[in-house]
């Protein structure tokens, strides 16, 4: 529940119309940090031995998730 509340608060706090001249990459930091906060929780939930089965190729799933930083990162709400 706390992780969901953190994610919701990050999205509400990072609404682009609240700070129209702020670049999107700055607004997206809070939701991405909330998403990455779930990684240690998942490792704890599945057990530390499951983390040993991870490899670097499995991190490629993050590329589509992080692509808005590259494609929209320098835009602002007012432009």
Give a brief rundown of this model:
The chain is mainly α. It is built from six helices and no strands. The mean pLDDT is 83.
Q: Would you write up a description of this structure?
A:
- It is a single chain.
- The chain is about 60% helix and about 0% strand.
- The relative contact order is 0.19.
- It is an all-alpha fold and about 80 residues long.
- Helix 1 (about 1-15) runs antiparallel to helix 3 (about 30-35).
- The chain starts with a helix and ends in a 7-residue tail after the last helix.
- It has helices at about 1-15, 25, 30-35, 40-45, 50, 60-70.
- It is flat, with a radius of gyration of 15 Å.
- Keywords: Membrane, Transmembrane, Transmembrane helix.
């Amino acid at each position: 529940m706390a992780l969901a509340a953190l994610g919701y608060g990050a999205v509400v706090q990072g609404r682009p119309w609240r700070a129209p001249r702020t670049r999107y990459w700055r607004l997206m930091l809070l939701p991405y940090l909330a998403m990455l906060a779930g990684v240690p929780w998942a490792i704890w939930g599945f057990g530390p031995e499951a983390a040993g089965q991870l490899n670097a190729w499995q991190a490629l799933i993050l590329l589509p998730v992080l692509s808005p930083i590259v494609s929209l990162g320098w835009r602002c709400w007012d432009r």
